[in-house]
Amino acid sequence: MRHLIMTTTAALALGAITASAEEVRVYNWSDYIDEALLEKFETETGLDLIYDVFDSNEVLETKMLAGGSGYDVVVPSGTFLQRQITAGAFQKLDMDKLPNHANMWDVVSSRTEQYDPDNAYSINYMWGTTGIGANVGKVKELLGEDAPLDSLELVLNPENMQKLGDCGVHFLDAPAEMIPMVLKYIGEDPDSHDPEVIAKAEPILMAIRPYIQKFHSSEYINGLANGDICVAVGWSGDILQARDRAAEADNGVEIVYNAAKEGAQMWFDQMAIPVDAPNPDGAHVFLNFIMDAQNMAAASNYVYYANGNKASQEYLVEDVIGDPAIYPDAATLDNLFTTTPYPAKVQRVVTRLWTKIKSGT
Amino acid sequence: MRRFALIALPYAWLLALFLVPFIIVLKISLSDIDLAIPPYTPTLDVSEGWAGIKAFFRALDFENFVFLTTDDLYWKAYISSLKIAFIATLLTLLVGYPIAYGMANAPDHWRPTLMMLVILPFWTSFLIRVYSWMGILSTEGYLNQFLLSLGLISEPLTILNTPTAVYIGIVYTYLPFMILPIYSALERMDGSLLEAAEDLGCSRLKAFWLITIPLSKTGIIAGCFLVFIPTIGEFVIPSLLGGSQTLMIGKVLWEEFFNNRDWPVAGAVAVVLLLILIIPIVLFQRNEQKQRELEG
Lengths: 361, 296
Description:
Chain A: GO terms for molecular function: polyamine binding. Chain A: Required for the activity of the bacterial periplasmic transport system of putrescine. Helices cover 47% and strands 16% of the residues of chain A. Chain A is an alpha/beta fold. In chain A, the strands form two sheets. In chain A, strands 4, 5, 6, 7, 8, 9, 10 and 11 form an eight-stranded mixed beta sheet that branches. Chain A has a three-stranded parallel beta sheet with strand order 2-1-3. Chain A is globular. In chain A, 47% of the residues are buried. Residues 1-20 of chain A have low confidence and may be disordered. With 296 residues, chain B is mainly alpha-helical. Chain B has one domain (70-295): MetI-like (MetI-like fold), CATH 1.10.3720. Chain B has helices spanning 2-29, 50-59, 63-70, 72-105, 111-119, 126-137, 142-150, 163-187, 191-199, 204-215, 217-232, 236-241, 249-259, 263-295, and strands at 32-33, 40-41. Chain B has a two-stranded antiparallel ribbon. In chain B, strand 1 and strand 2 (40-41) form a beta hairpin. In chain B, helix 9 packs antiparallel against helix 10. The mean pLDDT of chain B is 89. At the A-B interface, helix 3, strand 6 and helix 18 of A face helix 4 and helix 13 of B.
């Protein structure tokens, strides 16, 4: 009996070792890649790819800070990446193993440097803006032909929200993006870390709160596409996916996405390798594969988000590269703002304010 | 020796599965938030020897517990959770008792089947069952379609994302935990006692009240504890079925842990929750024991 147990244990241990040498475990956002690419990666490299998904930076960050996540590649957004680098959660990239790094686009790299100096720990996967998606027909029916579809007035002015409320309005459940948006609307610095300035967002949000049907970070894609809701404050690519689903379904729903003309937040999702990744070599192989111009273009063509890869641009379809909602022109680009991570004390103020907005307590 | 093993086993069980995790949570609740892996300080550094252990204990303090008193959010969430758990337990008892009673009085050859039917839902994932309720209760859901087609209502009811949906979810999920202990208490009951009561001129209702209920008391208490305790800390049901206005301590804990990344405050919230639960239970048991001694 004991002999049997020993043999089994030995076999299991051996299995674990050989398996981890051939496996790459990737943890990415949901609905964020062309799945054909995952198969292509396995055929090209002979590595087994284990691909899991999440839908909030907070969940990822908790896994990273707890340590031992078991993932080789993860995809935090800029501000979260910066904080996790400070916590020592990632390892520096070995550029010798990433020949495709030459494909990256300086316009994006120079912006991601504020989160990851010299881009030593991460590569850009995709980037986008946080803005307003609207069901054109219904909003115009309720607010008239000159409805401010491209302005924060649409979602932050109680008069407009009162009329839109019954039709369904969703906001992202992401305080680190919603509060900067409100601050921008009232002319404050969207990246303010001053609790007194942040508190100024409260009355604005409390006034429109009764008309917000739900705070959620992914349901709005289906909601907009089916015509269940009229307006969503959400992420560019998600709303554009909703627009295309509605067009495909041919259900008479027309969705439009606008980065607010007052200024919209620009964010970056960065691929990085955890410090305790079981297979860092495999992780580098994956990053290099993603930075291949054609692979990156395939991913962007599929999910309607812009990427930080210059060389991929010649393979992008016109629908993507030619759409100013995805690749904004220079003037719009100037109007976008970025934010930096909140320190723990300020984070607490922000979360508390958000709880108050959501629960009324 | 054998006797020692018999006593040691349950204590070892308690130690490993209750005390050790509790001490870990308590330790985190006395620490301070830090940007590191893990995200709190101090962590015990055994390599420093005795000095390291001393430094570790000196750095622990109760400021996170003091912090909980500075914001009324926590107290409101505790009270609201207690209230929801209390009402939900009562509802579960009202639904569960008749089922258990029916099972205990069913013909012998039916009982295994009925028992099976109570346990059967556990074969499906809890999460999937709660998700199904979203499909049933939503505005366009099966329940509304059914009621509309019967002509009982003219406008769809808003149930999903309200406290009503939370109660439905809790009663549904925890019903077997209420039924099983009550059933086992009722099943052991001696039926001749009821006959005797009726012979002595008791009405059936009065006999039920004076004999059946007191004899199933242990089952009722066990069932209520099994429902009440997990319901207080419930997170999944209110977050899927309840709206954002349903304030529960499980949700507050989640926010402390994930949004604020403040493991120490999350730890403090959990320790207070445990105290709120344990102290009344210990007092209750003491009281029970005293009564038994008095009766004995």
